[in-house]
Design a protein that fits this description.
By secondary structure, the chain is of the alpha/beta class. It has a single domain, classed as Alpha/Beta hydrolase fold, catalytic domain (Rossmann fold), CATH 3.40.50.1820. It contains six helices and six strands. Strands 2-1-3-4-5-6 form a six-stranded parallel sheet, with helices on both faces. Strand 1, helix 1 and strand 2 form a beta-alpha-beta unit. Helix 3 packs across helix 4. It is globular. The N and C termini lie close together (about 5 Å). The relative contact order is 0.15.
């Protein structure tokens, strides 16, 4: 069983995040899903970016830090898209994290990686928010820093392909993602 902090995308704390948390709980994990905005989620990515700017990136990160403050040091940091970036940003504060599960976006600075840190990234192929050159550079840096990195690509799907409430949703890719993520978490 793992303790998991699961951070939402730029859309906010949507039903897909809560459903994912329930799926992880059903597998025996303890999961928290902090609301980093404190307001209802939005329906479009443009509205999500506007909300992020209104709330402020610093406030989002402070809320994330507060949400994990009482969790065990070995908590797995996980997130959807923007939330993957949040999870990665917290890695510097949580050097004993049991793993980093990144859904729909890369995250984490190689400077914060401890040798042997398990990192699993699930990403559309191609992904509009992850330019191939930048992703390759990030992957090389994470591996050079000692991360045990697995990048799992899903050809022909949209960015947020595990969220059934957005046009990007792809049931087969989502099922494969959750099976792989559960195996990753089961080893923590």
């Amino acid at each position: 069983m793992a303790h998991i902090a699961l951070f939402h995308s730029v859309y906010g704390l949507r039903p897909a995040v809560l459903t994912a948390a329930d799926r992880l709980r059903a597998a025996g994990h303890e999961v928290v899903t902090p609301d980093l905005y404190g307001v209802p989620p939005v329906d479009t990515v443009d509205d999500g970016f506007a909300l992020l700017e209104k709330v402020g990136r610093d406030v989002v990160l402070e809320r994330a830090r507060a949400a994990v403050g009482q969790l065990p040091p070995e908590t797995v940091l996980a997130g959807f898209s923007m939330g993957a970036g949040v999870a990665g940003a917290l890695l510097a504060d949580r050097p004993k994290a049991a793993g980093l599960l990144l859904l729909h976006g890369s995250g984490g600075s190689p400077d914060a990686v401890r040798p042997g840190l398990p990192v699993q990234l699930h990403l559309a192929d191609p992904d509009v928010y992850e330019p191939p050159d930048e992703l390759d550079e990030w992957g090389r840096a994470m591996t050079a820093a000692g991360a045990e990195l697995a990048v799992l690509r899903y050809p022909g799907v949209g960015h947020l392909f595990t969220d059934p409430d957005v046009p990007d949703y792809d049931a087969a890719a989502a099922d494969a993602t959750w099976a792989r993520a559960l195996a990753f978490l089961g080893a923590r």
